């Protein structure tokens, strides 16, 4: 059970981290960063940012002699649309667990709307990701260095950097709006809550701020993945649900791993059946997350509505074929939509910093318990704080603080709390995205609103607009723009009365 | 100038810390604590609290191996009025820079109103004060231990403790209201801003949350002290204003210190004229702060409206007497109202932990620049961040972060920020109190309100009611009670709709 919970632990990582590990060939810190940009540039996605580095303080919340150590935090600036003199707004992306360039590439929404708002665009990298390494190559060495990686320090970084930036740009009167998707969305929402004097509003896309403690049912994430597949095709759901037992039976069979390796077209013979399970599992989970209405390449290149496409593959195969072979065929869409892979590497992927960093965060503060119910299409499993704690202690030498996030940021009874406190927040969610279940799905007040789309997926609203965008997506973005406009109008009105 | 700025630095400490050093004969940590209580008990002030200790985490904002070290944080509980079953509220005092018993003694208001509200009373001691020493006797040893002493860690302590307490008492539905005076009031206000999910409202009395950066004019504190004396008597103000030059002239004179020692009736011959200046200065500043409408013993036993009494002494002395002798006579009221002192100890007082602790906080985060204008009754002086930084580096080996408090908690344009964000805060101030100038003095919104009294002094509203309380004080407290009632009504109404 312990090894299984470790496995589960890996699977619940955010898309970004796993995405980072999956696309590690182009997503490595250092020299390879530019190749990502070049690649995207080739695809005619423009990300015209200048890179800067801010001397950031190591520890905002103690005054120990070493707290004031400085590291260089990366941030990107685009000022081509900014009307500084008119007090044009500053749109800040609160970076999440990865290289900030990648978020800039995948948050075209901000670039799309910048001209309309005459906005300055700033993307700030999260400490301990990308280039923003407080201890250089030693940053991930142990808990003695990693101990400074957490959300509160990241928020304080953003506060200090934004304040300094505004001062240096002599743009005190420019209002700041923060944007973020996924964990970055959680940071954006929390930033508005903790630093309302710095940001006048927050747009938090696909931010599962309620995925802690017992606020959201622990089984909801995998139930939501399962629902996506069930909605596409009941047969598809049943095939996948039945495939795990077939895999188990085959794996434990004499020479079973050889058969599994053959079936999964692995480049090298598998050492464990778990590798095949992980591989399938990840494909289904991440495809549900990025079940976008248009062809996209966030995690992997995928067609429009890839869950439906996967189910079409399953439903199209002969009745006699095994469930496992059907599941493999479906998962292949995720790993090989471009048809360029001749074989698959299911084992031996090294962790990128991004993955390792989130691993640390999940083992300390970001404790999001998850289980699989009997109704899900995955094998049922439970969650135990005790086992989780033991695993984390073993891995990092520190104990998780599983109730700290809700102590620090709240979450319980959020509607009652925030309807009496706070303002100017957008929580956008697409219900295809399993993370949506841990998000804010109802309007809380007139200015803390939930924008929900039934067919949307993981922060789809933050992606660049395309010619094929469906009406509901166009509408969602329009609503976001209108709300931000209202915040700004109010702000400028207040400013005049100063 | 450097030595003068160090001096100024001492003078701007909050009343509590200096109070602690002044009353050190009964205010020492450890064995002497109970004598304070006994003394007060003799005076028929009831403080029926039970003492508890909470295993608190050393560092909430990092996950270093040593962050999870536990120390024992003291807190006091009174449950005699609590209607737990009816979801009676929990009134929490967010302890400031001193022994929590002392705040319990001097916050009779909470005890007075507890029966009306059926409230549980909790007084939580601030880390690094009183008994709540994270490193025992070594807590003040150096920046390596003191580094964990700051307001954000203190607020997180309160959040963790309150959450745990409610869980242990099975009182999840009981709303929490936080109270605090002076620095404790700043903490109460900030707690509501940062932890609205834990406290439904905050009563912040005499909380100078705007005494940072350039939000409040740097000269306002000493101008306010001077105004108090000018309002009592213009002659009095002029005499004090003129006394400093006389002291300087006398001190630098041959055998001048002997004359000063004689004039000031010191127990031992003075080593420096600065001691006499400090002694006078403190008397005037703290008497202005505690210019209460009734006889009281917060810092020192004093008559009602002690500033007026001081000025009566000055104005009553013969015209021919020196200004310095008049200033001494006035200051003697502060140090010897009970007429029990035969001589005065102006030098050689050892710092209590309380003083030292605030000294550290003032040298790191609580940087409140202050100057004396030409219009004040004190000798003019300026403030320099550079000198301040040098002094602090010399004293503690760490550099102040003078703009951190406003980055973390805001303050600039507070009316515009909080009229659009936040709710349920009372900022009460008495305009006799020089700290009032750094407080919130205007209503910000319908539920973030300023309660101002012209004749009030440093958190006078938090003192126990007395028979001699003037109408304006009775009225101020009634307003506070009515507002708290409204918060609670709203909360219980929301709770029913859950």
From TrEMBL, chains A, B:
One of the GO BP terms on file: proteolysis
Family annotation (InterPro entries): AB_hydrolase_fold (IPR029058), Peptidase_S28 (IPR008758), Ser_carbopepase_S28_SKS (IPR042269)
Annotated SUPFAM superfamilies: alpha/beta-Hydrolases (SSF53474)
Residues making up the signal peptide according to the UniProt record: 1-20
Keywords: Glycoprotein, Hydrolase, Protease, Signal
Sequence similarity: Belongs to the peptidase S28 family.
Protein's name in the database: Lysosomal Pro-X carboxypeptidase
Species annotation: Solanum pinnatisectum
């Amino acid at each position: 059970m312990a090894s299984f919970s470790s496995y589960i632990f890996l699977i619940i990582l955010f898309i970004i981290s796993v995405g980072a590990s999956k696309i590690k060939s182009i997503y490595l810190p250092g020299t390879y960063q530019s190749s990502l940009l070049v690649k995207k540039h080739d695809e005619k996605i423009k990300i015209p940012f200048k890179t800067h580095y801010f001397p950031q303080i190591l520890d905002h919340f103690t005054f120990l002699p070493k707290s004031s150590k400085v590291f260089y935090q990366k941030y990107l600036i685009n000022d081509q649309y900014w009307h500084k003199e008119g007090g044009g707004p500053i749109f800040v992306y609160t970076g999440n667990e990865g290289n900030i360039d990648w978020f800039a590439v995948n948050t075209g929404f901000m670039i799309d709307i910048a001209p309309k708002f005459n906005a300055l665009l700033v993307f700030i990298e999260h400490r301990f990701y990308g280039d923003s390494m407080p201890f250089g190559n030693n940053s991930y060495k142990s808990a003695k260095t990693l101990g400074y990686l957490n959300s509160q320090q990241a928020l304080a970084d953003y506060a200090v950097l934004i304040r300094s930036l505004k001062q240096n740009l002599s743009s005190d009167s420019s209002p700041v709006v923060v944007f973020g998707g996924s964990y970055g969305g959680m940071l954006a929402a929390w930033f508005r809550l903790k630093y309302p004097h710095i940001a006048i509003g927050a747009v938090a896309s696909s931010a599962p701020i309620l995925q802690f403690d017992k606020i959201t049912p622990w089984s909801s994430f995998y139930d939501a993945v399962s629902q996506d597949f069930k909605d596409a095709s009941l047969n598809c759901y049943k095939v996948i649900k039945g495939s795990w037992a077939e895999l188990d039976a085959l794996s434990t069979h004499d020479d079973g791993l050889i058969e599994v390796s053959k079936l999964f077209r692995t480049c090298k013979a598998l050492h464990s059946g778990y590798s095949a399970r992980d591989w399938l599992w990840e494909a289904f989970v991440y495809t549900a997350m990025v079940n976008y209405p248009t062809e996209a390449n966030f995690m992997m290149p995928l067609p429009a509505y890839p869950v439906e496409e996967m189910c079409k593959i399953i439903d199209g195969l002969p009745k006699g074929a095994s469930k496992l072979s059907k599941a493999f065929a479906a998962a292949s869409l995720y790993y090989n939509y471009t048809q360029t892979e001749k074989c698959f590497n299911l084992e031996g992927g090294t962790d990128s910093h991004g993955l390792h960093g989130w691993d640390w965060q999940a083992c300390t503060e970001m404790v999001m318990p998850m289980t699989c119910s009997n109704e899900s299409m995955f094998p049922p499993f439970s969650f135990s704080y005790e086992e989780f704690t033991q695993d984390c202690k073993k891995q990092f030498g520190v104990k998780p603080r599983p109730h700290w996030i809700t102590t620090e940021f709240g979450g319980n009874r959020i509607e009652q709390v925030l309807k009496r406190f706070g303002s100017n927040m957008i929580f956008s969610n697409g219900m295809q995205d399993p993370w949506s279940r841990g998000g804010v799905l109802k309007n809380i007040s007139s200015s803390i609103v939930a924008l929900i789309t039934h067919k949307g997926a993981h922060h789809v609203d933050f992606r660049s607009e395309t010619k094929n965008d469906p009406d509901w997506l166009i509408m969602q973005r329009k609503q976001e723009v209108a709300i931000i406009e209202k915040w700004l109008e109010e702000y400028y009105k207040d400013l005049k009365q100063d």
